[in-house]
């Protein structure tokens, strides 16, 4: 019984005193996230690189300065969300992202309309948390393998999952308060 408490205590104290606790906790969290992710580690790294390049591409383009465009890459498929002033900019943004090295497919879910404000962004974060919590609590779907993103009340679901899990996840998300629409961007395996 004593050994069960002593080993973690000594490890925690040693790491805290050496200043490495933050690094270990961060690395552990990243490791857990990677372990639960259905993508390979290589695909996860590729997706991070794609997101960085895509955001830089959009930020450097003066035609898109008034737009709000979010970029999420999952298994080399890019999901674009946000708001632009007119349809030409919506199409233009997607075309720019299609040219980013490594991008296989683009889901263009950018809406033509007024850019959302901080209040809606906060509501979206809350909706994402509620959907993710419901997915993780469900015994009918592997919620840890599903990425959830919300933009202006619309919930986007991404992941490499079965068709049954995709259907269940969409139904769970639809029933969360505040969700106006659910967009299935799953890659079914």
TrEMBL record:
Sequence ranges assigned to domain BON in this UniProt record: 46-114, 123-189
Domain of life assignment: Bacteria
Pfam families associated with the record: BON (PF04972)
Keyword annotations from UniProtKB, A to Z: Signal
UniProt keyword annotation of Signal present: yes
The UniProt record lists the keyword Signal: yes
Signal peptide: 1-21
Name the record gives this protein: Osmotically-inducible protein OsmY
Organism annotation: Pseudidiomarina taiwanensis
């Amino acid at each position: 019984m004593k050994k069960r408490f002593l080993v973690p205590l000594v490890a925690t104290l040693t790491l805290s005193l050496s200043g490495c606790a933050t690094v270990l906790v961060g690395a552990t969290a990243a490791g857990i996230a990677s372990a639960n992710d259905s993508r390979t580690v290589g695909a996860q790294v590729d997706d991070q690189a794609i997101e960085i390049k895509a955001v830089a591409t959009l930020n450097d383009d003066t035609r898109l300065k008034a737009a709000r465009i979010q970029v999420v890459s999952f298994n080399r498929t890019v999901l674009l969300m946000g708001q632009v002033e007119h349809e030409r900019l919506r199409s233009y943004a997607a075309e720019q992202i299609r040219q980013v090295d490594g991008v296989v497919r683009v889901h263009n879910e950018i809406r033509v309309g007024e850019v959302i404000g901080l209040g809606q962004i906060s509501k979206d974060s809350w909706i994402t948390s509620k959907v993710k919590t419901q997915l993780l609590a469900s015994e009918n779907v592997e919620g840890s393998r599903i990425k959830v993103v919300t933009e202006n009340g619309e919930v986007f679901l991404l992941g490499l999952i079965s068709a049954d899990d995709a259907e269940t996840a969409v139904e769970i998300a639809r029933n969360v308060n505040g969700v106006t629409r659910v967009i299935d961007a799953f890659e079914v395996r």
